[in-house]
Amino acid sequence: MKARNIFTVSSRLQRRYLRLIVFSMLTPTLFVGGCLYYLVFSLIAQEMAIPEFVFQVLLPALKRVNIFLITGIPVIFLALYWWGLVLSHRLAGPIERFNKELDQILEGDYKKRIRVRKNDALRPFVDDINRLLDKLEGVRD
Prior knowledge:
- By secondary structure, the protein is mainly alpha-helical.
- It is built from 3 helices and no strands.
- 76% of the residues lie in helices and 0% in strands.
- The relative contact order is 0.11.
């Protein structure tokens, strides 16, 4: 029996949504990080304008900032990616299920109704489709 994957579906929509999230995380991070390092290193490059004792005081702070960035950014990325995965599953999952169940209805199983979870984004749409199927079944009988 094939194991069910909890948060991923084989949907282009979900992959596109996750790529958008990753791009939205990386772009500002790289831009702000690049600007920050440019500022810091341009100040260090102008060391002659900064007295040696000030530079020695700044060095531990720079090391702490680097440690924070190296440990904090991946954690934030993973948390945001996980959140995006859950949100994309709430959208792409019902669409995938909707397509499969609609195919079964089109094959002749007119008693079938489309089911989605209570909090799925397409719940109102699916409820309307099910009401339409109920009316069509009433007309057929």
